[in-house]
């Protein structure tokens, strides 16, 4: 349901096609030295060796009962962006599982974000097909297939347009196992949908609706930050015994590039990943803002000249622990609690507004569990409680400067 | 055209072939219900006659037939024998034509200005001018319109100025329609996205990119457009019901809702039709069936006989009309509006615009059709060329007038464009206004203060913000206090 689909497709594609537009919302200030952006992020694994040593990676062709092996001999990788990694995951899923089908609006020609390029040619139009414009229909159809034990990989063209499917997802997919006394389940259902802002999408192409699903126990929500993560987490989501909503940050489709292992592998659901270890403050995020966090950390330790007098020397050596939550629900409370108990401070960053948000949920839980260890209130850096306004997006979406300010605020509380 | 764009277009068209397994049932013919010859009475509390013959049906038409299309003018603008030309004088006809020509003029100018210095780009005439302008002319200026995104012509017909159009395109300080909150913003688009412009099927791109402004104007009785598709359809039933309850407007106005055939796949379409028929309201449903929604052809949106076939299912008076024939649209929508208001009930008009020469009833005729053939067809079916033929045959239009009009419209549009280009955006504080009416909740106030504080601290030293603030009227100083 995509009034402006090609529009955002256009904008999205512009965000990763040339050096001048890379990381459109993460523009480093030209006068302020070279700050990391998605294109230069150290969080991306750009060598074969680094890719093969991705923490938690489990090759699906090895005996699952054995210990996780770190052996990487004989494994190959290929350079991929995020949409190619998503496509690769679906290809693996369909190759191994004859019941797997991929469907949604415009997926047959490759999808407006190209995530299904060539899949119809590879697997035939009985397995990769267009649906009419009906999100509740897409979700319900997927639920039906999954109830029959098939693997349904559905696409909702934009997360902003998932709401017509809300009833099917919240009242049906989430509750079928429970209401049928575990006779029926729709674990075979995965709903992929592009999410988050690209910097100029406005009200209906920039939302992060993950928070709306928090109350729907029975559903899982996963948001990857990179191509390696997208492939491994999507394969795990497709094979998870529960319905999963897999939200893909659309600005990363082209701009995030890694070496991605060729073989079939999974990354664990409900496990956060600590990307940078630290001891003074825990910085928690997921999806696109992870890269804003990286920029903020660089600005904290070596501020560009224009900001130098705003970043006290005493804070520059602060050691910040950066964690990617990855699974939004059920989230990894253990990892976050352990980290915050060590650092005594927590800053959460997401693009959705603060009311009823995932940040609010985590904040409540952590303040309960870590109350005596906290040296500062949990800080939430989010959008505002307004719709996402097009011309105002640079002041709506939390960027590196707001994260830097929030970290300094929390450190000096 | 660069190779990459060709690839995308061809890919899109290949996808328009119906998968074999999905199309098998198309070999069966459609059949209508058969009226029983013998009398066996009918079901209690129903007029359904009892029959002893087992007969399945899937059409309101007799076997193998499709719902006919109402047309007045032939392909070159001559009235068809027996067709009734709707009442119109020279002034009305010329105004119709001028607004119809203004639409592609705006397209061209917005487009060319964006692309200055870039490679040239293949353009299509998108061909919905007759449907939008013809229907607008059939309505009262204060009938409530709920559009989808291609109905700028309705606003122009009602006197929405070029400056207002451009204000929304730029989202500048004069944009009353959305205060710069809703997309799209043309200037950014053209500069930043040449890649995509080239890689998208243009027939889709154009309406979506240039004409898809999110207009809205209470003054013009035009409800603000929303990006989610089809949401306006059930709302229209409510608008119609409110009109019916209003003693001032009852019997005088109707609600008019526009939507594409793709949007008619949404549940909201069915909900809207159902509500307008069960809770009767003067609501005019206007489906624009142009054969495509993004890459997906209408043959994948429905298996039945278009949108019109659904009207009788809800007991709604229905007509299918040639959407490229402005006089057919004018006549049909006038009559539809009259029925709507007189009966206080819904009416459905399906306008077929076939702008890319696609036969919606054929599975794959389009897939490998030669470009030249498509081009030829477009010329014949072009609603503007067709109506001009009519005007000329009546002696209402000359070549000089044509030249004069084109120059004038171009000059006016260019002038408005340049003017809009020089204006700033709304003040930054508008980010936080209009979330609620009445007293502002604490969270909104606090967040405005938080951003103000951040701007005071970083507004001039954080380059991405400093650059951005320049684009706003007042440079954000109403917040930062500097």
Automatic annotation (TrEMBL), chain A:
Top EC class, one word: oxidoreductase
Q: Which biological process, per GO, is one annotated for this protein?
A: branched-chain amino acid catabolic process
Q: Which cofactor does it need?
A: thiamine diphosphate
Question: Where do the segments described as Disordered lie?
Answer: 13-40
What keyword terms does UniProt attach to this protein?
Oxidoreductase, Pyruvate
Q: Which GO terms describe its molecular function?
A: branched-chain 2-oxo acid dehydrogenase activity
Task: Report the SMART domains cross-referenced here.
Answer: Transket_pyr
The Transketolase-like pyrimidine-binding domain extends over: 80-255
The protein's Enzyme Commission number = 1.2.4.4
Q: Which domain of life is it from?
A: Eukaryota
What does it catalyze? N(6)-[(R)-lipoyl]-L-lysyl-[protein] + 3-methyl-2-oxobutanoate + H(+) = N(6)-[(R)-S(8)-2-methylpropanoyldihydrolipoyl]-L-lysyl-[protein] + CO2
Entries under InterPro entries matching the protein: THDP-binding (IPR029061), Transketo_C/PFOR_II (IPR009014), Transketolase-like_Pyr-bd (IPR005475), Transketolase_C (IPR033248)
Q: What is this protein called?
A: 3-methyl-2-oxobutanoate dehydrogenase (2-methylpropanoyl-transferring)
Automatic annotation (TrEMBL), chain B:
Q: Organism's domain of life?
A: Eukaryota
The reaction(s) catalysed by this protein are: N(6)-[(R)-lipoyl]-L-lysyl-[protein] + 3-methyl-2-oxobutanoate + H(+) = N(6)-[(R)-S(8)-2-methylpropanoyldihydrolipoyl]-L-lysyl-[protein] + CO2
Signal peptide position in this chain?
A: none
Q: Where is the Dehydrogenase E1 component domain?
A: 98-184, 214-427
Obligatory cofactor(s): thiamine diphosphate
GO biological processes:
branched-chain amino acid catabolic process
What is its EC class?
Answer: oxidoreductase
- Biological role: The branched-chain alpha-keto dehydrogenase complex catalyzes the overall conversion of alpha-keto acids to acyl-CoA and CO(2). It contains multiple copies of three enzymatic components: branched-chain alpha-keto acid decarboxylase (E1), lipoamide acyltransferase (E2) and lipoamide dehydrogenase (E3).
Q: Give the family from UniProt.
A: Belongs to the BCKDHA family.
Protein name as it appears in the record: 2-oxoisovalerate dehydrogenase subunit alpha
- Protein's organism: Rickenella mellea
Q: What is the lineage of its organism?
A: Eukaryota, Fungi, Dikarya, Basidiomycota, Agaricomycotina
């Amino acid at each position: 349901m995509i009034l402006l689909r090609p529009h955002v497709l256009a904008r999205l594609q512009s965000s990763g096609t040339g050096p001048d537009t890379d990381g459109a919302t993460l523009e480093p200030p030209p006068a302020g030295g070279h700050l990391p952006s998605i294109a230069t992020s150290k969080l991306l694994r750009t060598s074969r060796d680094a890719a093969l040593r991705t923490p938690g990676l489990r090759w699906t062709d090895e005996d699952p009962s054995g210990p996780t092996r770190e052996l990487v001999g004989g494994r190959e990788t290929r350079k991929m962006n995020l949409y190619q990694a998503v496509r690769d995951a679906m290809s693996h899923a369909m190759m191994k599982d004859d019941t797997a089908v991929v469907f949604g609006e415009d997926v047959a020609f490759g999808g407006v974000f190209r995530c299904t390029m060539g899949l119809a040619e590879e697997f035939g139009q009985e397995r990769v097909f267009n649906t009419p414009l009906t999100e509740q229909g897409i979700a319900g159809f997927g639920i039906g297939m999954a109830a029959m034990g098939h693997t349904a990989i559905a696409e909702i063209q934009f997360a902003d347009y998932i709401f017509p499917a809300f009833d099917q997802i919240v009242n049906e997919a989430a509750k079928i196992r429970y209401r049928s006394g575990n006779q029926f389940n729709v674990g075979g259902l995965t709903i992929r949908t592009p999410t988050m802002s690209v910097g100029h999408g406005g009200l209906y192409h920039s939302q992060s609706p993950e928070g709306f699903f928090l109350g729907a126990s029975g559903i899982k929500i996963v948001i990857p930050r990179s191509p390696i993560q997208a492939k491994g987490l999507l394969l795990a989501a497709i094979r998870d015994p529960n319905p999963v909503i897999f939200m893909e940050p659309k600005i990363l489709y082209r701009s995030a590039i890694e070496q991605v292992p060729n073989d079939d592998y999974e990354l664990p659901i409900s496990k956060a990943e600590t990307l940078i270890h630290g001891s003074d403050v825990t910085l928690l995020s997921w999806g696109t803002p992870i890269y804003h966090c990286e920029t903020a950390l660089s600005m904290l330790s070596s501020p560009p000249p224009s900001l130098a007098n705003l970043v006290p020397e005493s804070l520059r050596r602060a050691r910040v622990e950066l964690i990617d939550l990855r699974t939004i629900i059920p989230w990894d409370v253990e990892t976050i609690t352990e980290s915050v108990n060590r650092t005594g401070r927590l800053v959460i960053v997401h693009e959705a507004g603060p009311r009823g948000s995932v940040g609010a949920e985590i904040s409540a839980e952590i303040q309960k569990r870590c109350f005596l260890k906290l040296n500062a209130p949990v800080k939430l850096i989010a959008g505002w409680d307004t719709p996402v306004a097009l011309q105002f997006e640079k002041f709506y979406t939390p960027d590196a400067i707001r994260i830097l300010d929030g970290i300094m605020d929390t450190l000096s509380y | 055209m660069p190779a990459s764009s060709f690839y995308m277009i061809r890919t899109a068209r290949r996808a328009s072939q119906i998968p074999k397994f999905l199309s098998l049932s198309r070999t069966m013919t459609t059949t209508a219900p058969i009226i029983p010859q013998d009398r066996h009475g009918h079901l209690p509390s129903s007029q359904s006659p009892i029959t002893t013959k087992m007969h399945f049906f899937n059409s309101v038409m007799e076997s193998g037939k499709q719902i006919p299309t109402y047309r007045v003018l032939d392909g070159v603008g001559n009235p068809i024998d027996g067709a009734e030309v709707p009442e119109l004088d020279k002034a009305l006809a010329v105004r119709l034509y001028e607004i119809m020509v203004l639409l592609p003029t705006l397209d061209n100018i917005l487009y060319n200005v964006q692309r200055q210095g870039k490679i040239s780009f293949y353009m299509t005439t998108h061909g919905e001018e007759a449907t939008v302008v013809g229907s607008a002319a059939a309505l009262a200026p204060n009938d409530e319109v709920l559009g989808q995104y291609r109905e700028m012509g309705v606003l122009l017909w009602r006197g929405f100025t070029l400056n207002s159009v451009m204000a929304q395109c730029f989202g500048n300080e004069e944009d009353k329609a959305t205060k710069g909150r809703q997309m799209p913003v043309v200037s950014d688009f053209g500069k930043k996205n040449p890649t995509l412009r080239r890689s998208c099927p243009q027939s889709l791109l154009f309406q979506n990119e240039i004409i898809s402004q999110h207009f809205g104007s209470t003054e013009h009785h035009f409800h603000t457009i929303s990006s989610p598709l089809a949401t306006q359809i059930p709302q229209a039933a409510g608008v119609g019901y409110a009109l019916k309850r209003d003693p001032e407007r009852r019997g005088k106005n109707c609600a008019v809702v526009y939507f594409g055939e793709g949007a008619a796949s949404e549940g909201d379409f069915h909900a809207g039709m159902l509500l307008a028929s069960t809770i009767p309201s003067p609501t005019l449903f206007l489906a624009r069936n142009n054969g495509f929604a993004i890459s997906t052809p209408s043959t994948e949106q429905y298996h039945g006989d278009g949108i019109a076939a659904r009207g009788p299912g809800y007991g709604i008076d229905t007509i299918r009309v040639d959407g490229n024939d402005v006089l057919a649209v004018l006549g049909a929508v006038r009559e539809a509006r009259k029925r709507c208001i007189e009966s206080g009930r819904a009416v459905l008009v399906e306008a077929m615009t076939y702008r890319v020469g696609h036969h919606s009833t054929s599975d794959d005729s389009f897939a490998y059709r030669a470009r030249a053939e498509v081009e030829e067809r477009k010329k014949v079916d072009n609603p503007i060329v067709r109506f001009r033929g009519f005007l000329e045959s009546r002696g209402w239009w000359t070549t000089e007038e044509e030249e004069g009009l084109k120059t004038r419209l171009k000059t006016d549009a260019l002038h408005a464009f340049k003017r809009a280009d020089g204006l700033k955006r709304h003040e930054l504080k508008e980010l936080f206004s209009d979330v609620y009416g009445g007293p502002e909740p604490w969270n909104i106030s606090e967040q405005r203060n938080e951003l103000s504080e951040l701007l005071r601290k970083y507004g001039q030293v954080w380059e991405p913000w400093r650059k951005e603030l320049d684009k706003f009227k007042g440079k954000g100083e109403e917040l930062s206090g500097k």
